[in-house]
Amino acid sequence: MITRTAAGCEGQPRCAPVSIAMVGTDGKAGRMIKVNVMYPYTEGARFDHAYYRDRHMPMVKSRLGNACAYYTVEKGVSGRAPGAPPAFVAMCAFICDSAEGYEAAMQEHGAEIRGDIANYTDIAPVLQFSEVIVERSDR
Amino acid sequence: MITRTAAGCEGQPRCAPVSIAMVGTDGKAGRMIKVNVMYPYTEGARFDHAYYRDRHMPMVKSRLGNACAYYTVEKGVSGRAPGAPPAFVAMCAFICDSAEGYEAAMQEHGAEIRGDIANYTDIAPVLQFSEVIVERSDR
Fold it and tell me: Which are the contacts of A16, defined by CB distance < 8 A and separation ≥ 6?
């Protein structure tokens, strides 16, 4: 994130600084973050991909509301070598305008969301906040 | 992946089988996979995010050609707790029609691509192949 004074605001005390995240290589400004939720592959662990896709993820999106623009979901197939287990059996990402918006929604709905995890897995997810650098290279 | 005989191909020896991956919850058929490349956070390690975004990733895309529809790039900011290091300092994903197409391009260009890694990091990436379940929830 690059914080700078908005053009024309120099010396104007009521002008707020503007946070600008440079996204991609084309100079377009945005301020997207990703919340990555990753379920480490664990021998013998349980993961119900259908429940995750059809029930859990739509419920989380509805609770996040406008704090989340959209989400992505993927299922781990293999590691680098064919047949080797993937690092993560499932991953999702919530693409949001800000970490603050996500956190505020989780303050309100986190208990319900975390309480649903046992319905599809016994794996404890790894979570991280990331800055979107290239949302998709063809846009 | 569901492999089935293309309609009208029954008993026709020169008709190839068609691979169909069911994507999302809406019944639309697709055949997207993701190749996730993840750089584990390592204390004191080097990662040049500008080189990665501006030089490495466009080079890889050009070598993958049509085998890769588009890619995404993100920069790890923090773990679950504010200020905690992220699991991965950087992640990218190549969204491709098939693992076979990606592998064929890597057979040809893998040495050049791997040879460029030292120009931006000394971290060995974790790689996995994933099936796209929801490409983006708002489409």
Answer: A6, A9
